[in-house]
Amino acid sequence: MAQYEAVIGLEVHVELKTDTKIFCHSSTEFGADPNQHVCPVCLGLPGVLPVVNKKVVEYAIKAGLALNCRIAPFSKFDRKNYYYPDLPKNYQISQYDLPIAEHGCLEINVHGAGKRVGITRLHMEEDAGKLVHQGTISSTPFSLVDYNRTGVPLIEIVSEPDMRSADEAVAYLEKLKAIIQYTGVSDCKMQEGSLRCDANISVRPAGQAELGTKTEIKNMNSFKALHKAVNYEIARQIKLLESGGKVVQETRTWDEARGETLSMRSKEEAHDYRYFPDPDLPPLVIDRAWVEAIKAGLPELPDARRQRLVTAYGLPEYDAMVLTSSRELADYYEECVQIYNNPKLVSNWVMGELARMMNAGGQDIQEVRISPAQLARLLQLLDEGTISGRIARTVLEEMYNTGKDAGKVIEEQGLVQISDTGLIEKVVDEVIAANPKSVEDYRAGKEKAIAFLVGQVMKSTRGKANPGLVNELLKGKLNK
């Protein structure tokens, strides 16, 4: 594979967080019964006219500015003509030659190396409906169609073919998702289809300037799927070229169960869609003062916030990068630090124990039942010596599962740390008497032996003994 270079570009579709659709008043709410959020406009019935939702244009401008794009003073909507069962009008209203935003970029970091990825364009369009397949897309005996999503507003963000690996593609999508979430124009819930991407992939001999024939992998809605699909497709194309074959320009789908990409159809060119300006929608003339007002209202974006966490809180670059990967996570962290002013310790608990439980439960920070104030109180109790670090982890787990305050959990389960010297000394004497070999090892210079003895004391006290006092008493008795 070192003899070849992959060339990757992503087309990312982002569902905008508006109350109504792009050209009608039907709701965009997720999760309704099939075909409930529809009307004559989004179903394309005869005699109806679309009217553009101003909030969609505002959100597109905001996203474009956050991605360092130039906002076009003049743009228009076009009809993209094709037939598919989930497209009731047999055309999609999109933007072709005059998009709302162009020539942007964002910075990614992969394995410690920074890289700038160009953004060709950002344009507005309406979403199609949803086909519900009985099985996989390539083997289903029949499909059902739900038009609720038809007409939901999207922005499509097209990158330059600047990525060279699956890792870079995932880093780009993660960064793009974070920026969009920070602006508030979309929730980017990949599991609900609010953010999904198509990957254009080609390979060429290393050092060659000319691009190879590309394939497009459609509709991936997880970072894991993107990484696997890109790696598979790169390997497939190289194997095909090495065997004397040719890569065919086509659209493919990622089959998660089989772990491979499968051919769907030949890839269309722009002329196949017969684009022309939509006669029912006038061109958009964007007032520069409006653009400047939107720009002035942009929130602090991930890179700026990451740098602030490093300088204001003294966090390592890695901690700041993880914490700012989502706006909600960064908000949670900073709210906790406002109450408990130990930025690094808060970072350790959020990125450590809390993240472990979130990953195990498949939850995002906004779904966690522990508030920043509750986590701050737990850390205060740890500082005060009410509980040990080991008990704190047990308490946090119970808080995560029940939403109870730390104090309540400690009270209910009798977890207050034991700091009574007499009680601990008695247990220490019992442990020394029961483990003569470890005592002998320690006195022979094997420092690690004391860790075992400390562990036995903690085990005997169910983790409630003050660890500092345990160490002090053990060393005092063993060094006599």
Automatic annotation (TrEMBL):
Catalytic activity: L-glutamyl-tRNA(Gln) + L-glutamine + ATP + H2O = L-glutaminyl-tRNA(Gln) + L-glutamate + ADP + phosphate + H(+); L-aspartyl-tRNA(Asn) + L-glutamine + ATP + H2O = L-asparaginyl-tRNA(Asn) + L-glutamate + ADP + phosphate + 2 H(+)
Domain Asn/Gln amidotransferase: 331-478
PROSITE patterns membership: GATB (PS01234)
Coiled coil: none
InterPro entries: Asn/Gln-tRNA_amidoTrfase_suB/E, Asn/Gln-tRNA_Trfase_suB/E_cat, Asn/Gln_amidotransferase, Asn/Gln_tRNA_amidoTrase-B-like, GatB, GatB_C_1, GatB_Yqey_C_2, Gln-tRNA_amidoTrfase_suB_CS
UniProt xrefs under Gene3D superfamilies: 1.10.10.410, GatB domain, N-terminal subdomain
GO biological process: glutaminyl-tRNAGln biosynthesis via transamidation; translation
Superkingdom as given in the UniProt entry: Bacteria
Record's subunit section: Heterotrimer of A, B and C subunits.
PANTHER family noted in UniProt: GLUTAMYL-TRNA GLN AMIDOTRANSFERASE SUBUNIT B MITOCHONDRIAL AND PROKARYOTIC PET112-RELATED, GLUTAMYL-TRNA(GLN) AMIDOTRANSFERASE SUBUNIT B, MITOCHONDRIAL
Name of the protein described by the UniProt record: Aspartyl/glutamyl-tRNA(Asn/Gln) amidotransferase subunit B
